[in-house]
Amino acid sequence: MHELLLNREIYTEVIQARIPKARKYLWIVTADIKDMYIDMGGGDFQPFLRLLAELVDKGVSVRLIHAKEPGPRFREDFDRFGSLINSELFERILCPRVHTKAVVIDGKSAFIGSPNLTGAGMGSKHEDKRNFEAGFLFDDAAEIKKLSDWIDHLYLGNHCLNCKRRTYCPDPIADDLSRS
Hints:
Layout: E1 2-6, H1 8-18, E2 25-30, E3 37-39, E4 45-47, H2 48-57, E5 61-66, H3 72-79, H4 82-86, E6 90-94, E7 102-105, E8 109-113, H5 119-122, E9 134-138, H6 141-155
Parallel strand pairs: 2-5, 5-6
Antiparallel strand pairs: 1-9, 2-7, 3-4, 7-8, 8-9
């Protein structure tokens, strides 16, 4: 499968249809992150973070990589979900150089495209308020492995020690002690 998703299709295919079905792991990479709300069924809109917490509670490992600190509403929502604070299955790192927007689900399907992890980006907002976004959903094992290896490399901080933007980084993933 190699499918172009536009606008609201990103929300329905990635956020609503695929992410809730994650069984082993979910990796999300985004430049911007905001308090996105999603329909949990029957018009019950809840923070996307609730879905992430539910996945963690089911034993799904969730990794979230983003470029800047989220706003106060996101942080308020985040603090409501103990699973995201206390579980070793939830990992969140910040790297100001991240501009990629990607989702990998269980190593079986992936999405890469233009939207950030926001309501306007992922298409959960009203059609007259959301961004114009595009991306590809795919299940090619070799491409998913390539993307996953790249995300893992980023997550482990392999770029940190030689990063020329390190002075702007509020929380380096790796420090100089990791060389020894």
